[in-house]
Design goal:
Blueprint: H1 9-22, E1 28-32, E2 37-42, H2 47-51, H3 56-65, E3 68-73, H4 78-86, E4 91-97, E5 102-107, H5 112-116, H6 121-134, E6 138-141
Parallel strand pairs: 2-3, 5-6
Antiparallel strand pairs: 1-2, 4-5
Protein backbone atom coordinates (compact mmCIF):
# COMPACT_ATOMS: atom_id res chain seq x y z
CA UNK A 1 0.00 0.00 0.00
CA UNK A 2 1.39 3.38 -0.93
CA UNK A 3 1.68 6.46 1.26
CA UNK A 4 -0.02 9.79 0.61
CA UNK A 5 2.48 12.17 -0.99
CA UNK A 6 2.41 15.94 -0.50
CA UNK A 7 3.91 18.09 -3.23
CA UNK A 8 5.59 21.41 -2.41
CA UNK A 9 5.17 24.52 -4.59
CA UNK A 10 8.38 23.90 -6.57
CA UNK A 11 7.32 20.33 -7.37
CA UNK A 12 3.83 21.47 -8.36
CA UNK A 13 5.36 23.98 -10.80
CA UNK A 14 7.62 21.29 -12.33
CA UNK A 15 4.73 18.82 -12.62
CA UNK A 16 2.63 21.52 -14.30
CA UNK A 17 5.39 22.39 -16.77
CA UNK A 18 6.00 18.76 -17.69
CA UNK A 19 2.26 18.08 -18.04
CA UNK A 20 1.76 21.13 -20.27
CA UNK A 21 4.59 20.07 -22.62
CA UNK A 22 3.68 16.38 -22.80
CA UNK A 23 -0.07 16.25 -22.19
CA UNK A 24 0.51 13.57 -19.52
CA UNK A 25 -0.87 13.96 -15.98
CA UNK A 26 2.44 13.65 -14.15
CA UNK A 27 2.12 12.33 -10.59
CA UNK A 28 5.39 13.48 -9.09
CA UNK A 29 8.78 15.00 -9.87
CA UNK A 30 11.74 14.46 -7.54
CA UNK A 31 15.03 16.34 -7.79
CA UNK A 32 18.18 14.27 -7.20
CA UNK A 33 21.07 16.71 -6.88
CA UNK A 34 23.67 13.96 -6.41
CA UNK A 35 23.11 12.67 -9.94
CA UNK A 36 21.84 15.95 -11.45
CA UNK A 37 18.47 14.57 -12.53
CA UNK A 38 14.72 14.93 -12.16
CA UNK A 39 12.88 11.68 -11.55
CA UNK A 40 9.41 11.94 -13.05
CA UNK A 41 6.64 9.55 -12.00
CA UNK A 42 3.79 8.93 -14.43
CA UNK A 43 0.64 6.79 -14.18
CA UNK A 44 0.60 3.26 -15.54
CA UNK A 45 0.50 3.18 -19.32
CA UNK A 46 1.65 6.79 -19.79
CA UNK A 47 5.41 6.26 -20.11
CA UNK A 48 5.41 6.10 -23.91
CA UNK A 49 3.28 9.26 -24.18
CA UNK A 50 5.71 11.31 -22.08
CA UNK A 51 8.73 10.10 -24.07
CA UNK A 52 7.03 10.92 -27.36
CA UNK A 53 7.62 9.53 -30.82
CA UNK A 54 11.34 8.97 -31.29
CA UNK A 55 12.03 10.56 -27.89
CA UNK A 56 10.92 13.99 -29.12
CA UNK A 57 9.08 15.09 -25.96
CA UNK A 58 11.72 13.87 -23.51
CA UNK A 59 14.42 15.75 -25.45
CA UNK A 60 12.28 18.90 -25.36
CA UNK A 61 11.81 18.51 -21.59
CA UNK A 62 15.54 18.08 -21.02
CA UNK A 63 16.20 21.24 -23.02
CA UNK A 64 13.51 23.34 -21.29
CA UNK A 65 14.40 22.14 -17.78
CA UNK A 66 18.15 22.01 -18.46
CA UNK A 67 18.61 18.74 -16.53
CA UNK A 68 18.56 15.00 -17.18
CA UNK A 69 15.12 13.50 -16.80
CA UNK A 70 14.32 9.91 -15.90
CA UNK A 71 10.78 8.63 -16.29
CA UNK A 72 9.28 5.87 -14.17
CA UNK A 73 5.84 4.30 -14.33
CA UNK A 74 4.01 4.15 -11.01
CA UNK A 75 2.20 1.15 -9.56
CA UNK A 76 0.34 0.67 -6.25
CA UNK A 77 1.84 -2.82 -6.20
CA UNK A 78 5.35 -2.57 -4.71
CA UNK A 79 6.64 -5.55 -6.70
CA UNK A 80 5.47 -4.11 -10.01
CA UNK A 81 6.87 -0.68 -9.05
CA UNK A 82 10.28 -2.24 -8.29
CA UNK A 83 10.26 -4.06 -11.64
CA UNK A 84 9.42 -0.76 -13.39
CA UNK A 85 12.30 1.04 -11.66
CA UNK A 86 14.85 -1.68 -12.38
CA UNK A 87 13.86 -2.34 -16.00
CA UNK A 88 15.61 -3.70 -18.11
CA UNK A 89 17.21 -5.76 -15.30
CA UNK A 90 15.38 -9.06 -14.90
CA UNK A 91 13.99 -9.42 -11.37
CA UNK A 92 13.77 -13.02 -10.12
CA UNK A 93 12.20 -12.44 -6.70
CA UNK A 94 11.19 -9.69 -4.28
CA UNK A 95 10.90 -10.24 -0.54
CA UNK A 96 9.41 -7.62 1.76
CA UNK A 97 10.39 -7.98 5.39
CA UNK A 98 7.55 -6.28 7.26
CA UNK A 99 9.13 -6.33 10.70
CA UNK A 100 12.18 -4.34 9.54
CA UNK A 101 10.45 -2.46 6.70
CA UNK A 102 13.08 -3.76 4.27
CA UNK A 103 13.00 -5.14 0.75
CA UNK A 104 15.38 -7.67 -0.77
CA UNK A 105 15.39 -7.79 -4.56
CA UNK A 106 16.94 -10.76 -6.32
CA UNK A 107 17.99 -10.14 -9.92
CA UNK A 108 19.64 -12.37 -12.53
CA UNK A 109 23.36 -12.48 -11.86
CA UNK A 110 24.22 -10.96 -15.24
CA UNK A 111 21.80 -8.06 -14.57
CA UNK A 112 23.18 -7.06 -11.18
CA UNK A 113 25.24 -4.21 -12.66
CA UNK A 114 22.16 -2.88 -14.47
CA UNK A 115 20.11 -3.06 -11.26
CA UNK A 116 22.72 -1.16 -9.24
CA UNK A 117 23.60 1.30 -12.01
CA UNK A 118 26.72 3.34 -12.63
CA UNK A 119 27.96 4.73 -9.30
CA UNK A 120 24.83 3.26 -7.64
CA UNK A 121 22.54 5.54 -9.62
CA UNK A 122 19.66 3.07 -10.09
CA UNK A 123 19.65 1.59 -6.60
CA UNK A 124 19.69 5.09 -5.11
CA UNK A 125 16.64 5.97 -7.22
CA UNK A 126 14.90 2.80 -6.09
CA UNK A 127 15.65 3.54 -2.41
CA UNK A 128 14.39 7.11 -2.80
CA UNK A 129 11.15 6.09 -4.52
CA UNK A 130 10.38 3.12 -2.25
CA UNK A 131 10.87 5.28 0.84
CA UNK A 132 8.71 8.05 -0.59
CA UNK A 133 5.83 5.86 -1.79
CA UNK A 134 5.90 2.79 0.46
CA UNK A 135 7.88 3.83 3.56
CA UNK A 136 10.60 1.24 2.88
CA UNK A 137 13.73 2.07 4.87
CA UNK A 138 16.21 -0.49 3.54
CA UNK A 139 16.67 -1.98 0.06
CA UNK A 140 19.18 -4.66 -0.89
CA UNK A 141 19.89 -6.22 -4.29
CA UNK A 142 21.22 -9.78 -4.41
Amino acid sequence: MHRKISLNNETIKKVSLISSITGVDVMDCIRDDEFQREIVIVPKGEIYKIVGRGGKLIRKLKKVMNINIEINEYSDNIEEFIRNILFPARVKAIRKLNQSNSVIVEVNYEDKGIAIGKKGRKIKKMRLLLKRYFGVKNVRIT
